[in-house]
Amino acid sequence: RPLADGPPRHFTQNDTFFNCPSGGRLKLRIEQDSSAQLIYYERNDISSLLIPKVSNYLIIMHKSTCFQWEFYDPQMSGSIDGTDLIPHDKAIIRAYKSKYKPRYNCSSLFIGHIPPLCTENNLAEIFPNAIRINLIRDIITRESKGYAFLDGYIDRKKEYKFHGHLLLIEDVASKKVFGWKPRRFGGGLGGNKQSGQLRFGGSQKPFKK
Fold it and tell me: pLDDT digit string (tens) for 102-123?
């Protein structure tokens, strides 16, 4: 009886191992033409000829955002599928070297995709239950940078628009994601190719499988 349902398959596989403080090892497995896997090995280091070393392992399924992973890594966010091992821009190296400490009283919600003509008063009308709204402006020109921070209750199931333009609502990453580095430190999320600092792992540009 055949042991396989097809001909032999040749594949290329790269494994990167990480030591875990709690014991065991975490392995990043990257296969050719396949999605990457994180595999955690819970291993007893006691072994002998009579008692072989046994490992229990858990394959961590793909997650599309750093909010689901609950941690932020600049190199991971600089990769379209979160698996690149070599930084492709200098900002990633700068993010690793930087030390960022979020403010204790920072806002809880991020509002993005704000049109240039939208003001703080307009946002207050769109979000009537907001306690505080901070529309970020250029320090010199005082023009809106297209995003704001907000405190207060928002119904996340609803869509919020300004003159038909859909606004983006996300949790503030520094409160939800361990190891967060903002864009000015070389990290962040989103962006575009023209900026040279494209970052994946957010709702608008999730990691691809």
Answer: 876 667 899 999 999 999 999 9
The residues with which 14 forms a beta bridge, in sequence order, are 30
User: Do residues 132 and 183 share a domain?
Assistant: no
CB burial of residue 61 (10 Å; 0-12, 13-18, 19+): exposed
pTM over 0.85: no
163 and 129, same structural domain? Answer: yes
Give the span between the Cα atoms of 109 and 158, in whole angstroms: 15
Domain coverage including residue 43: 8-61
| Highest mean predicted confidence (pLDDT) among 66-75, 156-165, 191-200 | 156-165
CA–CA dist 195, 205 (Å, integer): 15
C-alpha to C-alpha distance for 92 and 72, rounded to whole angstroms: 12
Phi, psi of 91 (to 5 degrees): -65, -30
pLDDT tens sequence across 25-43: 777 766 665 556 677 776 6
Gyration radius of the chain over CA positions: 22
CATH of the domain at 151: 3.30.70.330
Q: What is the number of domains present in the chain?
A: 3
In-domain check, residue 1: no
